[in-house]
Every structure is written in structure tokens, then in C-alpha cells.
Specification:
methyltransferase activity; 3-methyl-2-oxobutanoate hydroxymethyltransferase; eight-stranded parallel barrel; binds 3-methyl-2-oxobutanoic acid; magnesium; binds magnesium ion; TIM Barrel; binds 5,10-methenyl-6,7,8-trihydrofolic acid; alpha/beta; 11 helices; 274 residues
């Protein structure tokens, strides 16, 4: 065997504290998913603030119809690949379906995603029962990104990939859940597929940054799935996605165009929201 570094090199750079400062200054946070070192390095070089190793890899990399088949082994593998490409950006990695179903399992999965996968932040879906998990991680100084609204790991319960929080009762529940995840110790919150006005209200009510996807222009930041941004999603991309490679001549230019559009407020437009 040849010598290898014992662990991914620590990346100086972006922290959850820095993203919180960006929120307080009104500077937009730009995030994109990545699944390997090459695209991680491209995103990093384009000045993307946060790179997410999403379990969307089950759909865009593996070709499954949902994110549910993704395993901890797989997300750890992809996260470690991305970590080798990323220096400045904050590296956030999804905890897969059922890998945080109770506190002991969540601690074990997070330990692997951080120690082997090089993640700085673990991301998990839901509130309710998951609040106890967020609290346990937070108490152990694990940085956590919560994820509310359309939570794709609940697709069979939600009945499809649909906008959430349209009815008054659902909107009230979402606002309460957002406050609860912050209270439980979450450092960031992804809001997916919720009405723009509701996402704006939640963003104004929280101290932690909100990162929207299909959640309108008033979140503190935006995230897109890499394949949607590059126009290479198998099948039909979600309505909130935009192909930034169209009109650009390189992946680097597309990522820069996306970052510029988020920072200027040009993206997302009304046609990308609900
Ligand atoms: N390529 C890709 N992009 C994503 O944003 C994404 C994934 N995959 N996989 C994991 C989840 C699943 N997501 C999805 C997938 C589909 C829709 C979708 O088709 N939504 C309908 C909205 C329907 C409504 O109006 O309620 C759409 O037309 O966009 C939304 C989110 C978001 N994430
Ligand atoms: C769509 C983003 C937020 C995500 O969770 C993923 O890529 O898995
Ligand atoms: Mg995900």
C-alpha cells in the first residue's frame, strides 16, 4: 500500500458562522450540489459558498425514481470524492433515508459522513420526531442543516414531488417547524417547493439562514441540483430549475452565471416559484 493522508485536509474557508453573517448583511448565499471531485472543484473555483452532496444522487447519478435507495456507504463515498475537490466552500452532506431514524443511528451515520466523507455539516429532512435528532447532534457540536417543505425522503407519504404549505394549516405547521428546528440547534434550513410568500415569512422569522429551492427569491440563499443547472437531468427537470449552461460555453461559465444571477437577484424569477 502507498501512503495516503489519514483524513481529508481541513478546508479553511466557509463556516456556518460565515453564512449567518452573510444573512445579517443581506448577501445571498449560493449553493449547488456536486457528486465528485471534478464538479466540486468547478463549483469551488466559481466561488459557490456551499456545496451539497445531495441524496439527489440517487436520481441524477444512479437513475432511480427517488432518493430512497441511497445508502450511507454511497453518500460517504461521494462526499469524500467531493471533499477532495473543494477548498473554500462549506461542504454539506445529506444523511440518507433511515440513516437518522433514531439518535444512535443518526450519531453513527453523521460520524461516518463527517470523518470519512469530509463533511462540515450534515443535512436531514423533517421536524417532529427529527427534532430530537437535531438536538442530539447539535449538543455534540455537529453542525446541522435542516430541510423542510418538500422532503423527498417522504415521497411515498406526500404522494409525489409537489409544492407544500399551500393550505393555511400546512403553512402554519411549516412556520412552527422552522422555528422548532432552529430552536433544536439547526444551523441552516433548506426550504424546498414552498410558496414564495411563505418562504419569505419564514426567512424573516429565523436567525439561521434559509436556502431555497423552488421557494422564491426571498430566502437567504439558493440551491440547485447540478444536473438541472447544466441541463443534463435524466427526464423532465423540476419547474424551479434553470439551465445555466444554455448560452455559456463551459461548466465554469455556467456555474459563474448561476452565482451571479443569485447574487444579483435575477434568479429565481417568478416563473421558477410557486
Ligand atoms: N434533478 C433533480 N432536481 C431536484 O431538484 C431534485 C432531485 N432531482 N431529486 C431530489 C429532489 C426531488 N425534487 C423534486 C423533483 C421533482 C419536482 C417536481 O417535478 N415538481 C413539480 C411541481 C408540482 C407542483 O406544482 O406541485 C414541477 O413541475 O416542478 C420537484 C422537486 C427536488 N430534488
Ligand atoms: C435538492 C437538495 C436540497 C437536496 O436535498 C439534494 O440534492 O438531495
Ligand atoms: Mg436531499
Amino acid at each position: 500500500m502507498y501512503a495516503q493522508p489519514a483524513a481529508p485536509a481541513p478546508r479553511a474557508a466557509t463556516t456556518v458562522t460565515r453564512l449567518r453573517e452573510m444573512k445579517s448583511r443581506g448577501e445571498k448565499i449560493v449553493s449547488v450540489t456536486a457528486y465528485d471531485a471534478g464538479f466540486g472543484a468547478q463549483a469551488d473555483a466559481a466561488g459557490i459558498d456551499m456545496v451539497l452532496v445531495g441524496d439527489s444522487l440517487g436520481m441524477v447519478v444512479q437513475g432511480h425514481p427517488s432518493t430512497l435507495p441511497v445508502t450511507v456507504d454511497q453518500i460517504v463515498y461521494h462526499s469524500a470524492c467531493v471533499a477532495r475537490g473543494v477548498r473554500q466552500a462549506l461542504l454539506v452532506t445529506d444523511l440518507p433515508f433511515m440513516s437518522y431514524r433514531d439518535v444512535p443511528t443518526a450519531l453513527a451515520s453523521s460520524a461516518r459522513v463527517i470523518a470519512e466523507g469530509g463533511a462540515a455539516v450534515v443535512k436531514l429532512e423533517g421536524a417532529g420526531w427529527a427534532l430530537e435528532v437535531i438536538r442530539a447532534l447539535s449538543e455534540r457540536d455537529v453542525a446541522v442543516c435542516a430541510h423542510l417543505g418538500l422532503t423527498p425522503q417522504s415521497v411515498h407519504k406526500l404522494g409525489g414531488y409537489r409544492v407544500q404549505g399551500r393550505e393555511a394549516a400546512a403553512a402554519e405547521q411549516l412556520k412552527a417547524d422552522a422555528l422548532a428546528v432552529e430552536q433544536a440547534g439547526a444551523d441552516l434550513l433548506v426550504l424546498e417547493c414552498v410558496p414564495s410568500a411563505l418562504a419569505a415569512e419564514i426567512t424573516g422569522s429565523l436567525r439561521i439562514p434559509t436556502i431555497g429551492i423552488g421557494a422564491g427569491p426571498d430566502c437567504d440563499g439558493q440551491v440547485l441540483v447540478l444536473h438541472d443547472l447544466l441541463g443534463i437531468t435524466p427526464g423532465r427537470p423540476p419547474r424551479f430549475a434553470k439551465n445555466f449552461l444554455a448560452g455559456c460555453d463551459s461548466v465554469a461559465a455556467a456555474l459563474t452565471a448561476y452565482a451571479d444571477a443569485v447574487r444579483s437577484g435575477a434568479f429565481p424569477g417568478p416563473e421558477h416559484g410557486f
